[in-house]
Each structure stands twice: as structure tokens, then as C-alpha cells.
Design goal:
By secondary structure, this protein is mainly α. The chain contains 14 helices and four strands.
């Protein structure tokens, strides 16, 4: 393969290999479209959009897919001598805001591991080093573990975590906590994504790919033409766009209002003494919205209407991250 702009090529490769969202023309042209289509695409790239060198590189990917190494990412992640060392991998760049991570699921898992007393180290990886392009990803015992919830379940089963974070709860409380967690992770998550990747895209892209650390070709070609459209496609499939703006805003306000009622004046959602998986999930969501308010201004405004939600996030942050303990919102939250 011609080693020209390897970062761009690597992302193309990762998308074509693994990413379930990658159904766009350019991502799958090597497998889905005939050679004349690829040739036309290359000509357009070389004459209109890009220098011819990148077009040649893309054609090289088309003609020589056997040169792609699907498991190359494992090599770097398994270099650690101690196989029992837990390494939490994320996509966030070192030069951007170090905390929190821009993924609520990474924040959730980070909080869960800290609260359960699991010693771990963090590592920033590149997109092409991830098997699905999604985080969190944990390297442990010479394996790559994915999905924040399943990672905790695995660690409980194998004794890395002594007791499940929900072990102290009754069956009814576990059911309620699971419903709350799913509401934030499988419903409000897409509202967060819509605001970041559509409504506030002009702001978000510079958070995800800072100008100082990202080559303009990578930011424009890969991010603008491929990643963002694919994420928007996933958002559409999630059904968020089927609502009018007014209806969706009301749904968001009602959701946070209900969450605030469940929390009440307790320290955590189901206890004033112990946290559970739902607490970690809600914390990851609120922390992400408020600390990245420039990407989620509407969600942040809705959350700030409920002082107890803001105080909850502050409380968890102070407990698990004492070195970073400071109010998420200047002056605290309050009813508007």
C-alpha cells in the first residue's frame, strides 16, 4: 500500500472492515461497486477534491484489500507486560480536554471502576485501533473487552470486582435502576448525539478534532464527508428526528423532570449511601452534557432546571475525582 496520508487511509480501512454505521458510498466502494465506479471516484478526487496521491492510495486499497490487517490494533494494546493490568482505552485526544471524556459510556465505566476499587490506567487510542470504532474498550488479560455494562459484568464474574454494584438492591430496585439506565443510555443518548452531530456540528467537530492537532484533510475529508453523515444516518434510524422540535424539547424536559423526581433529596438515585450502575450511567450523561455544554446547550439548559441533578453530578465527581472536584456549573444549578 502506498504510504500516503496514512491516518486517512487507516480510518477508511477501519470503517470498511468493522464499523456497522459505514454504509456510505466511499466507505464500501471496494466491496460494493464495480471498478469503473471506483475509477470515476478516483478521478473526481484527484481533479476536484483531493490531490491525485490520495486517489492512488484509495485505489490501492481497492485493488489490494489483502494488505489490510484487521487485527493490527491488538498488537499495540497487548504490549503491556502485566496481562492482569486493566487498561481503559478511549478516543479523546491528549491535547483536548482531559476530563471528562466526550463519551458518556467511557465516563460511566471510569466511575464504576473507581467506585468498585479497580486499579486501572487510561490510554488514548486512535480510531483505527478499535475493532468497532466505539469506546469504551478495555484491554485486560490479553483480551479486548467492549460495552461498559458487559465489562462490569465480566469483571464481577471473574473476581476483578468483588461485588456487583447492584448487589445490595432489591429485585424491584434493580428493575427500576435498569429502566432508568436504559432511558439515559438508549434514549437520551441519541438526543445528545443529535444535538452534537447535527444542531451543534460546527462547534462539535472542533471539540472532537481540534484544529491544532488534526490535519485539515483528515478533519474535512473523513470527518465531514464520512463520519458525520454516517452518525446522522444512525440518529435517523434511532427515530429522534421523527419528532418536531417543540415535541422533542418537551420530551427532553419531561425526561429530566422525571429523573429529578426519582432522585429527590437522596444522595444517589436509589440510596443515600451506595451507588449502582444506574448512578454511574446518569453521572456519565450529566457530566458529558454540562462539561461539554458548547455541544449540548439545550440539554444543559434542561438539566440546569433541576438543582438536585446538578448537585448529584457534583457529588459523584467530588467522591470519585477529588482532585477535580469543582462545581460543574458556575454558581450551581437552580430552578429557572
Amino acid at each position: 500500500m502506498i504510504p500516503i496520508w496514512p491516518e486517512i487511509v487507516a480510518v477508511f480501512e477501519a470503517y470498511r472492515r468493522h464499523d456497522p454505521l459505514a454504509h456510505g458510498f466511499a466507505i464500501e466502494f471496494g466491496d460494493k461497486y464495480p471498478i469503473w465506479t471506483a475509477a470515476i471516484f478516483a478521478i473526481l478526487l484527484s481533479t476536484v477534491m483531493l490531490p491525485g496521491t490520495l486517489a492512488i492510495t484509495l485505489l490501492a486499497n481497492y485493488f489490494y484489500p489483502q494488505k489490510i490487517k484487521p487485527h493490527a490494533h491488538i498488537t499495540r494494546l497487548t504490549r503491556h507486560d502485566d496481562r492482569k493490568k486493566v487498561v481503559l482505552c478511549s478516543l479523546q485526544q491528549e491535547e483536548s480536554k482531559p476530563f471528562p471524556n466526550a463519551s458518556p459510556f467511557v465516563c460511566k465505566l471510569d466511575a464504576a471502576l473507581r467506585d468498585c476499587g479497580v486499579s486501572f490506567q487510561t490510554e488514548v487510542v486512535k480510531y483505527e485501533e478499535l475493532p468497532t470504532g466505539k469506546t469504551p474498550l478495555v484491554h485486560w488479560n490479553n483480551e479486548l473487552l467492549m460495552d461498559s455494562q458487559l465489562i462490569v459484568e465480566r469483571f464481577v464474574a471473574e473476581g476483578v470486582i468483588e461485588k456487583h454494584p447492584d448487589a445490595w438492591m432489591s429485585d424491584a430496585e434493580k428493575a427500576g435502576a435498569a429502566m432508568l439506565r436504559h432511558g439515559f443510555e438508549n434514549f437520551m443518548y441519541w438526543g445528545m448525539m443529535k444535538e452534537r452531530w447535527m444542531d451543534q456540528w460546527k462547534v462539535s467537530k472542533h471539540v472532537f478534532w481540534p484544529k491544532k492537532t488534526t490535519d485539515w484533510t483528515l478533519r474535512f475529508i473523513v470527518c465531514e464527508l464520512f463520519i458525520q453523515p454516517n452518525v446522522v444516518s444512525a440518529i435517523k434510524k434511532a427515530g429522534v428526528l421523527s419528532y418536531s422540535v417543540q415535541d422533542w424539547d418537551k420530551i427532553v424536559d419531561d425526561f429530566y423532570s422525571h429523573a429529578a423526581v426519582i432522585l429527590g433529596d437522596k444522595q444517589y438515585f436509589f440510596s443515600s449511601e451506595q451507588m449502582c450502575m444506574a448512578d454511574y450511567a446518569v453521572f456519565g450523561h450529566i457530566l458529558n452534557v454540562l462539561d461539554f455544554e458548547e455541544m449540548n446547550p439545550k440539554l444543559a439548559k434542561s438539566i440546569k432546571r433541576h438543582a438536585n441533578l446538578v448537585a448529584f453530578a457534583d457529588r459523584v465527581k467530588a467522591k470519585l475525582y477529588p482532585e477535580l472536584a469543582m462545581s460543574l456549573v458556575a454558581g450551581g444549578g437552580g430552578e429557572e
